[in-house]
Automatic annotation (TrEMBL):
Residues 12-86 form the Transcription regulator PadR N-terminal domain. Pfam families: PadR (PF03551). This is PadR family transcriptional regulator. InterPro entries: Metal_resp_DNA-bind_regulator, Tscrpt_reg_PadR_N, WH-like_DNA-bd_sf, WH_DNA-bd_sf. It comes from Candidatus Fonsibacter lacus.
Length: 177
């Protein structure tokens, strides 16, 4: 399973692979990919960007727009950063909820073989989750809150819908071989 910082690094490298971005724009786009319930403060973003720059994965671009005396800072991926991003598209474990969503957002540069591998692994994980949820719902609900039971039903429905979607994605990927 990828750590929070690895997932965020992968996200930032993927975004910067598309071109230079300012910190504010990186945060905004990252939140779109990571989801509304994932907190990403500037207090965690900028230290990571600094570490990535020190590691040679990205570089800082300073510019004066002329309208303001303030220097604008943007970030740009380096050749080393692009190589790291490409390596991560092939090696990162993307079966967990957050990692899968992030990796799927950058499926374009991921090899065909690895896309199928990730989709199949995610489907296996969701089938296990759905089986567990079904088993829990079949057990006696004595003492369980009705809303907790409803949440489990909703979780099962969501998992089953995603499994159907994954089946379609896997079929399409195999066809495009």
């Amino acid at each position: 399973m990828a750590s929070r910082s690895q997932t965020l690094e992968f996200t930032l490298l993927g975004l910067l692979a598309g071109g230079p971005l300012h910190g504010y724009e990186l945060r905004k786009r990252s939140l779109t990919i990571l989801g509304a319930f994932r907190a990403l403060s500037f207090g965690s973003l900028y230290p990571l960007l600094k570490r990535m720059a020190e590691s040679g994965l990205i570089e800082v671009i300073e510019s004066n727009s002329g309208k303001s005396r303030r220097t604008r800072i943007a970030y740009q991926i380096t050749k080393t950063g692009l190589q790291r991003f490409q390596a991560l598209t092939e090696t990162i474990d993307a079966t967990e909820d957050e990692a899968f969503g992030v990796h799927f957002a950058f499926f374009g540069p991921t090899s065909h073989i690895n896309r199928v591998r990730i989709l199949e692994a995610r489907r296996r994980r969701l089938r296990e989750k759905a089986d567990l949820l079904r088993h829990e719902l079949e057990r006696s609900p004595i003492g369980l809150d009705k809303y907790f039971i409803e949440w489990r039903r909703h979780s099962l429905d969501s998992a089953e819908r995603e499994i159907v979607w994954l089946d379609e994605m896997i079929k399409a990927e195999r066809k495009s071989q």
